[in-house]
Structure formats: structure tokens, C-alpha cells
Amino acid sequence: MTDPRQSQSIFTRGAVDLGALARSNTAAAQRATTPAPAAAAGANVIDVTEATFQDDVMQRSLTMPVVLDFYVEMSAPHQQFSPLLVQLAAEGGGTWTLGRIDIEANPRLAQMFRIQNIPFVVAVVGGQPVDAFNQVLPEPQLRQWIDAVLKAAGVEVERPEDPRLLAADDAMADGDLDAAEAAYRKILDETPADAVAESGLAQVGLLRRVDGVDFAGALSAAQAAPADVPAQLIAADVEVLTGEADKAYSRLVDLIRRTPGDERETVRKHLVSLFAVAGPDDPAVAKARRALASALF
Fold first, then answer.
1. How far is CA 49 from the centre of its chain?
2. Which of 49, 82, 122, 271 could pair with 252 as two cysteines, CB 3.0-4.6 Å apart?
3. pTM to 2 decimals?
4. SS3 of 77, please?
């Protein structure tokens, strides 16, 4: 997921001066005789007030991300969404802290963040807000958002395998391509641009294309007919499946250079589908994309 510090943020509507708020609350925080009570989930979830903002948010965010959940007691968004944040904070194992802020009890904090509706969730890293959202997110997208916040803070966290992906992978391994495709598409509906699911879906397409193909015969046919686009496409599929993706990419880039018209676009789309099989982080894909750009332009 995109680093939240580099993505479009709702903070583009104006800077949030957390330092000014923290300084104005320092005296009140020093006068506080008891800390704000921790929530039931333990030390990973705290109740933040104007008096404790300096210590609970500003200072704490220097060592770990603090995610602030602004809420109104008894509101539907709070009752439906906040428990999920508490759950994820507990699962985080101390890698980040959830700070809960009652808007009605802390109006100056709400004014500082220009809150117009709830839910309103903001991540603070190193004493600065890095990203925020003001809508109810499905659990998969919320997990991705938190992962991006952790990445922005330099926190490396190993996530357990997604059971949805495991089920889809098992279906593909069992040869049930219809079930695998349906599972990957469902994941992408719930979590758009999930790179692993996109790769799985591309693999399903690849396996369907080579079903019943004689690998050696396909490669020989492509060698005998270098201008035969369908023969070159299936040969590239075979090369990817046999661990020679570099050859497949070069084959299709070269084909694009010497193929005009609609067939050229067909080859380009096929090559992009093979890139998806490997995933965006594969160094061979990055190299082939550069070659593709050169061939096209």
C-alpha cells in the first residue's frame, strides 16, 4: 500500500499544528493528578484528553505510531467501527497505539483537526499527522491502511497469511480454476489492487491458456514462425511456466517492435498479463517494463 505520507491526504485542506495544541495543553497536563483511564483492550488502547494530549500523542508518537479515533459516545459509527480499531490495536502487539478521543468532551481537539463528521481517524507519526480518513472502511482496507502507517514509521510487522488467499491458492493447486478465480475476484472486490490476488488471478488465466498444450511443440512452432502472433504468445506462456520468464518477456517485447496495428496491442496486453503473474516487485518485470516502454515509444 502507498506510504500515507506520499499519498493524497485530507490534510491538504490545511496544515494541522499539533505543536501549538500540545504547547497550550502542557500546563493542564502537568496539573493532571491521574492519567486518563486505559480502555479494556489494555495498554495498546488509551483514552486521550486535551490535558494528556502532549504525553499520550505527541511524545508517544516519537517512538511508535499513534492512531487517533475521534468519536461521539452512543453514535452508530462509534459503536460499529471503533471496536474493529480496538481489535486491530490488540492484534498489533504494541507496534502502535490507539488513542480514543471523545469529541464532546474534548472540543478543542476536534476543532484543531477540523472534524466535520465521524468516524474520523488520523495517524500521528513523529509528532506529525501523516494520514487520515473520515469514512467507515472495510476490515481488509483498514488493515492495509494501518500497515502503511507502520511502514511510514519504519515499523516492520509480519502479518499472518490471509485465509482468503490461502483458500484461493489451495483451489488453484487442486486444479479447480473456477473456484480459484472466484476467490481471487472476491478478494479484489473487497481489497482493490491487492497485488497477491492480482497475481493469483493472472496465474489462473495463464493455466487456462496452456491447458492441453504440448510445451515442446509450442516452442518449436514459435521458432518456426516468428511472425505468428498466437504461436509467440503461447510460447511466452510456456516459458513463464517453465521458469524462463526473462525469455518470455524478451520474446514479446521483440514481437511488439516488429508487429503493427491491432496485433501489437494484443501482444502488449498479453505481456502485461504475464507481468501480473510475477507481481510488481519482481526485478525482471521492472527491467522488461523499461524495454516495453522503449519498444512502444
1. 31
2. 271
3. 0.53
4. helix
- Asked whether 240 and 274 are in contact (CB, 8 A), the reply is yes
Whole-angstrom distance, CA of residue 99 vs CA of residue 86? 10
pLDDT digits (tens, 9 = 90+) for 252-295: 999 999 998 899 999 999 999 999 999 777 889 999 999 999 99
> What is the rounded distance in angstroms from the CA atom of residue 204 to the CA atom of residue 182?
10
Distance of alpha carbon 25 from alpha carbon 142, whole angstroms: 31
Q: Which residue has the higher pLDDT, 258 or 7?
A: 258
Mean model confidence pLDDT for the chain: 85
Residue pair 279/285 in contact (Cβ under 8 Å)? The answer is yes
Whole-number Å distance between alpha carbons of 267 and 60:
53
Determine whether 83 is exposed, middle or buried from the number of CB atoms within 10 Å of its CB (0-12, 13-18, 19+).
exposed
Q: Is 25 in contact with 53 (CB distance < 8 Å)?
A: yes
* 42: confidence class by pLDDT, cuts 50, 70, 90: low
C-beta separation of 268 from 294 below 8 A: no
Amino acid type, 54: Q
Alpha helix (H) residue ranges in 43-138:
53, 76-91, 107-112
Q: Is the CB of residue 61 less than 8 Å from the CB of residue 125? A: yes
Question: Helix, strand or coil for residue 287?
Answer: helix
| The pLDDT of residue 182 | 97
List alpha helices for the chain, DSSP H.
18-31, 53, 76-91, 107-112, 139-152, 163-173, 177-190, 195-210, 215-224, 229-241, 245-258, 261-278, 283-296
Could you report the per-residue pLDDT of 155-183, keeping only the tens digit for each?
Answer: 876 666 788 899 999 999 999 999 999 99
Distance from C-alpha of 123 to C-alpha of 101, rounded to nearest angstrom: 13
